[in-house]
Structure formats: structure tokens, C-alpha cells
Amino acid sequence: MTNVALANEVEQLKAAALGYAARHVPVANFSYPPGVRMAVNFTLDFDAMLARRLANEPPMQRAKGEFGGRIGIWRLLEMYEAHGIKVTVFTPGRICELYPEALKRAAGAGHEIADHMWEHQVPKDKALEENHLLKTIAALERVTGRRPVGTRSEHSPALLCREGFIYNSSTSCAYTPLYQDDENGTNRLVQLPVHFAIDDAMYFSANWAGSKTSSQRLLDPDEVFEMWWSAFWHQYKINGYLNFMLHPFVSGRASRVDMLERLIVAMKKLPGVWFPTCEELARHSLSQRPL
Ligand SMILES: [Zn+2]
Predict the structure, then answer these.
(1) The domain containing residue 271 runs over which residues?
(2) Across 161-176, average pLDDT
(3) Is 44 left (phi over 0), alpha (psi -120 to 50) or beta?
(4) Contacts for 141-147 with beta carbons within 8 Å, 24 or more apart?
(5) Which of 24, 42, 43, 203 could form a disulfide with 219 if both were Cys (CB 3.0 to 4.6 A apart)?
């Protein structure tokens, strides 16, 4: 590479980094409500077997997904309700056809139901993408009685804003709530960051998505407890935030429900831990600094 070509590449990289920073804006002077030291979101991605069907996985793998809809979601809701915690259930639209009773139960108990695409994927075709989002909004509203205001997806920000969404929870570029603009610097949404380090599927899903890697094995829940406790403790010390990404077909298994419960009991012993839904946290961010 010539010196000129190298200099051009460096300039392009700098421009890309600056552009990214300009579109991902911290919530200036963000603070929690009085008495709150950190927020912890528990989110349940209610995928059941949808992602596994799309990947054409064998019946044995799909059965694991079915467990999430038939049993896992109920167990997790019961556990959270026993501790007075409201969770956010990110739900593909099709799940409304498959497990409406679980969703009605979750909504009736005050948990938030949010969008997670129609069939767990965003079509590249714009008209079809719009069709999927509108179908999902209608399906969720029919089952829960309320329009969703949040999503965990790669849906177009312009479409999301037009339909009244206020937040997305899909980036890993930060660790506290932030604002994200589209590539034109418009259609701003609150982003509630997540990360694979606090995603149950990374630790408890053998052969995830057909992976043959030796790292895709089942971990001891105690080992995951230690990792997640240290993630929590680090954030607790700095007035931070954690957004747990859990899946009922993964975390609905007995030993993992038990591990999550132990985690919650330990967190609740400390003063100032707030367990809002994602919508509550997004609205709190907006109340601090409107879009
Ligand atoms: Zn998902």
C-alpha cells in the first residue's frame, strides 16, 4: 500500500469513527431517580422455536424451543412475580399465534411486551419489512391490549419512529442508556445496551445454531452466577446498568431459574437497586433529556 493510500484509509476510518460517535449520543447528565444507585433490566427474548425453524434445525433442537413456550416462560414469570419484579418480554409476532395464553398472563401481571420482529428476522425488502412490523404491532396489541413502544431488532429507525416506538435494545456500543440516530442523523431512539456476556444462550446452549465449536457447551450455573454477579458488582459500584438478555427456552430450565433467583435475592440485599421494565427506563431517560 502506498503512503497516500494508507493516509486515505486512515482518514476514512477516522471519519467512520466520528460519524458513529455522532450518531450514538450519551444522555447528558443522566442520573437515576432519588435513592436509585443502578438499574437492572431483566429481558426475556421469547423466541421459542422460531429461530430454530428458520435455521432448519432438527426436531430435537426445535423441541428445546417448544419447552420455552410451554413451560420456561411460565416458570420465569412465576419466579419474577414472587420477587415483585416486572420484566420485558421481547416477542416475535408469530408467538402471539403460538403461545397467546403466556403473553396474556405476562401482560396481565404488568410485565412489558415488546417487539422482537415477526419471525425473528427483518426482511431486506422495505415493503415486506413494514408489513412484518405492522403485523407484529397488531398481533401484540390484540393479545396484550397495548401497542408496543420498544423493540429488540434491526428494524429501520424511520419506520420505528413513525409507529411510535421510543426505544430499541440491540446495541453493545455502550453500557448505559443512550440515544441512537439513523445514518442521516435523524429518527432518534433511546438505546438500552445489551451484551453477549449477559446473554444466557452464550453459556447454556450446546450446539447453538448448529455450532461445532468446543466453546459452545453447557456451563455450571454456579460459574455463570459468579460471572454475572461480578458484572453486577462492577456496575453497582459505578452507578451503572445491566440488561440481562434471557431466553425462556434456555433460562426456563430448573437449575437456571434457581440461579437467577439467587442472583435476585443477592441484588435485593443491597440498597438502591432498581428493577424497571425497559419502557420505564426509556421513559426515565426521556424525562431527563427529551429527544
Ligand atoms: Zn431472539
Answers:
(1) 44-288
(2) 96
(3) beta
(4) 142/96, 143/96, 143/100, 143/103, 143/104, 143/107, 143/113, 144/103, 144/104, 144/106, 144/107, 144/113, 145/107, 146/107, 146/113
(5) 203
pLDDT of the residue at 43: 98
Average pLDDT over residues 127-147: 97
Tell me, in angstroms, the distance from the centre of ligand 1 to residue 153's CA. Answer: 9
For ligand 1, the distance from its centroid to the CA atom of residue 31, given in whole angstroms, is 30
CA of 40 to the centre of ligand 1 (A): 19
Encoded amino acid at 155, one letter = H
pLDDT > 90? residue 56? no
The total number of structural domains that make up the chain: 1
Following DSSP, what letter does each residue of 197-263 receive, concatenated?
Answer: GGBTHHHH-TTGGG---TT-SPPPHHHHHHHHHHHHHHHHHTT-EEEEEE-HHHHTSHHHHHHHHHH
175, β-bridge pairs: none
Domain membership of residue 1 (yes or no) is no
- At 197 the pLDDT is 92
Over residues 30-43, the mean pLDDT reads 96
For position 48, which CATH number holds?
Answer: 3.20.20.370
Distance 8 CA to ligand 1 centre (A): 39
Would 169 be classed as within a structural domain?
yes
CA 275 – CA 239 distance, rounded (Å): 14
